[in-house]
Amino acid sequence: MTGVQTCALPICFPVTICTDEQYYDYQQISGRITYSALFSLVTNPQYQKMPANKQEDAVKAVIEKTRTAVRNRVATEQLIMKEIQKNLEGRGMSSKDAKEKAVDIYESLKEKQSNQSAEQ
User: What is the reported pTM?
Assistant: First the structure.
């Protein structure tokens, strides 16, 4: 599939349009975080002693919690990029160019932040 996906984000963003790449990133991040959380849960001795219905509830809770965390992260990224885009449009840049530049700027800021974190 090419083009855009419809992403289900938090209530403040009932439907947000994102690119295939953004949707893929969302799925990858969500999958890794959910897998890690579920692995920690099911290897916990307390979990293994729970009755099956409580285990099921615990699994569902972990999945919902991790998906919500990722959706909130994606929503925050979308807000930041939208603000950058508005600023660029306010400086006379076309909407299309501003949107592309906003993504570039945001990705650059994330990379810079990541590099600074790695140095510490």
Answer: 0.58
Query: What is the residue whose two structure tokens read 């963003």?
Result: 13
Longest dimension (CA), the chain: 63
Q: Centre a 10 Å sphere on the Cβ of residue 74 and count the other Cβ atoms it contains.
A: 22
Q: Domain of 52?
A: 4-119
The secondary structure element, H or E, covering residue 108 is helix 95-119
How many beta carbons lie within 10 A of that of residue 9, not counting itself? Answer: 19
Tens digits of residue pLDDT in 8-19 = 444 334 445 566
pLDDT, tens digit, 9 for 90 and up, residues 70-119? 888 877 888 888 889 899 999 999 988 998 898 889 888 888 888 887 77
Number of domains in the chain: 1
Angstrom distances, CA of residue 98 to CA of 42, 64, 110: 46, 34, 18
